[in-house]
Amino acid sequence: MSKPALTDLALGSAGLVGFLALWEALSRSGVASEDYFPPFTRVADALVNELGDQAFWTALGDTLTGWALGLVIAVTAGILAGGVISVVPYLREATASTIEFLRPIPSVALIPLAVLLYGTELRSVLLLVVYASFWQVLIQVLYGVRDVDPVAEETARSYGLGTWARVRHVLWPTALPYVMTGVRLAAAVALILAVTAELVIGAPGLGQRIAVAQTSQAVPEMYALVVVTGMLGLLINVGARTVERRALAWHQSVRGEVVV
Fold it and tell me: How confident is the model at residue 27 (pLDDT cuts 50, 70, 90)?
């Protein structure tokens, strides 16, 4: 591991230790009531107990299932829709107003619709996850295609490359960095909506366990589950960044990170 990487790891670890120490001190000092803001040591004990509970792992699997399925559907649909809208003449202008109308609608506003359609089933979670994540990918694809160098496009045409050849050799390499950014954003958004749907709708998963812990006054367990969702988000972000670096190893931005 390089020296800058070790420095970043040391600073990140120090920051985490400082945060946990501050958490413990604030709770123990009485600034916040331990009944509602328990010390980290109590939360850690609750977390250990959760890890030994089979129901916890089942809930974790349910959350990851909703997250993964929704993300795959959203990424696939976003890339296909963005590619078609960008390639077909005048389709981008024809769909611009519709996209700008639908995109700002908060996904949580669709919760009543999801409940009416699917109740507390997995499909309710997928509806919210896909809707929220789809726009992250679609918009990035549209921006990526717009960034294609006109000179490269005209050169490809002059050499007689067909539509699919231009997409493969000109459009896709230019749009790929934007696509990977969209996937990384969509991965985080998908997790947020999966947990939110479980929390509000009552679909099986970590969100449902958080709601049950809150209503039963199991405060340390509730905080432990919140910590788990945070750790899960961190792992997803690190994984998405790793995939992004591997997919864009040839790109100047990633090569610049490696050099630095």
Answer: confident
Nearest to 251, CA basis, from 169, 179, 145, 173 = 173
Residues of the chain by 3-state class (helix, strand, coil), percent to 5 = 85, 0, 15
Residue 126 token pair: 């997928």
Q: Given CA atoms 21, 26, 29, 32 in this order, what sign does their dihedral have?
A: negative
Query: Would you list the DSSP string of 70-98?
Result: HHHHHHHHHHHHHHHHHHSTTHHHHHHHH
What's the pLDDT at 5?
62
pLDDT of residue 74 exceeding 80: yes
CA atoms within 13 A on the CB side of 30: 0
pLDDT at 253: 62
| Entry field: residues in the chain | 260
- Give the sign of the dihedral formed by CA 238, CA 244, CA 250, CA 252: negative
Q: Torsions phi, psi of 106, nearest 5?
A: -65, 135
Report in angstroms the alpha-carbon separations of 28 from 38, 39, 170: 8, 7, 60
143: helix, coil or strand?
helix
Confidence check: pLDDT of 169 > 90: no
Beta-carbon contacts of 23 under 8 Å, excluding residues fewer than 6 positions away, are 39, 40
